[in-house]
């Protein structure tokens, strides 16, 4: 990848698993949040980011692990820029491997990766390898095992989550993210009150139902733009009030404006 300019190259991906490689300079990302785990490895340069009130530096060979829906930014720690690979994992996939346990909580977002673990995670960083169902499950299982190992001793609770009702709510929202489902409708689907639903949804998937809906709208918008729609038309089709509202939400989720995102895609 050309190190002289900002570039983002998408890998071969599958539902719930998005991999990419990026080369970036300066302050690459404004503060933003996404509803996936973001697990990256620095390949060259120094990656610097603000997270949980501190400045962190991720050096070549180190991983950074960002929990869903936590605010962070990102940029280069020196003038040369930095290059990294990253995988975004849908927490619902991890729940399949975790079997209803709460999501692993990683206290320190910068993690050294011993050689044994690096070998186990090798397929995660091979972003050009095909992701069929078998390899996708292998990646998710490897990451779930690794995350639980990193988080050992930091679990807040091992109480099992009532996962199936929450999955029904999640699927309802994801099927039509532009629709504003009422809280009463979601309560009926889950057969639980709104406060329990909100608390359990976050424990299972790392974000709120409302935030999950916004992120799915942005997924739909990116697909529309990629197929040729203008930002204004795509914003309305995805359920946003207007393009300005969409742009604010896009920057909060991605860390850059929609126009800059389009320019950096290789």
Please provide a written account of the structure:
By secondary structure, this protein is of the alpha+beta class. It folds into two domains: 7-150, Jelly Rolls; 161-266, Orthogonal Bundle (Arc Repressor Mutant, subunit A), CATH 1.10.10. The chain is built from eleven helices and ten strands. It has helices spanning 91-98, 115-120, 122-125, 133-150, 163-175, 183-190, 194-205, 209-226, 231-237, 243-254, 258-264, and strands at 7-10, 17-24, 29-32, 37-45, 47-51, 54-58, 63-66, 72-76, 82-89, 110-111. The strands form two sheets. Strands 1-2-9-4-7-10 form a six-stranded antiparallel sheet. It starts with 6 loop residues before the first strand and ends with a helix. The model is unreliable at 153-157 (pLDDT under 50). InterPro entries: AraC-bd (IPR003313), AraC_XylS_family_regulators (IPR050204), Homeodomain-like_sf (IPR009057), HTH-like (IPR037923), HTH_AraC (IPR018060). This is AraC family transcriptional regulator. Keywords: DNA-binding, Transcription, Transcription regulation. Residues 167-264 form the HTH araC/xylS-type domain. It comes from Noviherbaspirillum album.
From the spread of the alpha carbons, the general shape counts as globular
Pairing-aware structural class of the strands and helices? alpha+beta
What's the β-strand tally? Answer: 10
Main beta sheet: strand number and arrangement? 6 strands, antiparallel
Order of the strands making up the biggest sheet: 1-2-9-4-7-10
CATH class of the largest domain: Mainly Beta
Q: Fill in the CATH topology of the largest domain.
A: Jelly Rolls
End-to-end span in angstroms? 10 Å
